[in-house]
Amino acid sequence: MDSIKLAVFGSGPLFPTVKPTSNFARPDLRTVMEYSRAAFHEKNCTNDGSLIKLLESRLAKFHHTAHCVTFSGCFWALVFAIKAVAVPNKREVIFPSLTYRRMDDIVSWSGFVPHFCDVDEKSLSITPKAIIPCINENTALILAPHPIGGCCPSNEIEQFGVSHGIPTLFDSVECQYEICADRKIGSFSRAECFSLHASKLINGLEGGYVTTNDSELAEKLHSAKHFGLKSQDGSFVGCGINFGSNEIHAAVALASLEELESHLVVNKKLYHTYKQLLPRIPGLRLLEQDENHRPSHKSIVVELLDNWPLTREQTLTILSAENALARPYYSPLHKRRAVYPTISEALPVTERLANRFLIFPSGHHVTVSDIEKIINLLETIWHHGNYIAKKMKELGK
To answer: Tens-of-pLDDT digits for all 397 residues of the chain?
Structure first.
């Protein structure tokens, strides 16, 4: 057993440089500079210059919607969208506990009370079935985030909201490219929110945006991010703040959007390598992505089954020491101590699945050869798990 060479036990790491879990596709610098040239010629790097307008136009076309409004970050895109879409004078926003680690903060920042719901056991998605127990006379909004590596049933959730008289907002950060029910993600309900962070499918270094077919909502969002000023004539129409994006970020996002299809080829190859090789390890299961949704394959989600010999934390410790920077899937928000009010129903599925999922290395800093090495490492863990677990315990790891 002493022949088992792991970095966690003092050996050198499997990879000399880190292998991350996010896309991190850097667009061509020449294309970025060519776009940026317009901003410098116009002497306008902020306040809705030509590049921001071009980006919003292209993103609206990309998502098959009438409008796109960009923000300096997805956090504020969500905050302003929640405030704009929620039913006035009601307080509760329903969303899953098993989602983005700061979603409850975002809802609270928006002035509402997080009301946590459960998820579907197979897809990890919010569903109408999970929403029903949370609905009451104080429900202001259904906030439906797409799970990592999949789509929530957008059409069903949209229709569910309509039938119950509750508006729906989709957090589509993890589902930028997909199609659901023959419609492009971005075109559902009153609005959908996306990220342009460097780790996302479309890299704008930072930023976010909201898509909508509602002209009045688009104007409201535009005003909110520009000091409460009306876009047509600059007149004051309500409370606002300065959270618009800038021309340089728009230039990077435009260049990234041009290269998107080539990025997807890389992502698909990596996903199918995992799909081919992971069955060699009985203790792990790939969360397969539905090809009918035309997935981007940006992220790889793997379940640790009951017969996997290590805990999720032990597995993460081993992989991180090897510079394979896997990270945990979302941790339940209802278990977190919050400094603001929250509401939680019984969440049996969330609690059962809470420590079973990992996100594996993928994206443009990972190769097929890297994945093969990761699979070989996981096979070693599978075959010698009891010994590894015992030794880690002795070392206090």
So the answer is: 566 889 999 999 999 999 999 989 999 999 999 999 988 888 877 778 899 999 999 999 999 999 999 999 999 999 999 999 999 999 999 999 999 999 999 999 999 999 999 999 999 999 999 999 999 999 999 999 999 999 999 999 999 999 999 999 999 999 999 999 889 999 999 999 999 999 999 999 999 999 999 999 999 999 888 766 666 666 666 666 777 889 999 999 999 999 999 999 999 999 999 999 999 999 999 999 999 999 999 999 999 999 999 999 999 999 999 999 999 999 999 998 889 999 998 999 999 999 999 999 999 999 999 999 999 999 999 999 999 999 998 888 7
Residue 21 gets the label, from left (phi > 0), alpha (psi -120 to 50) or beta, of alpha
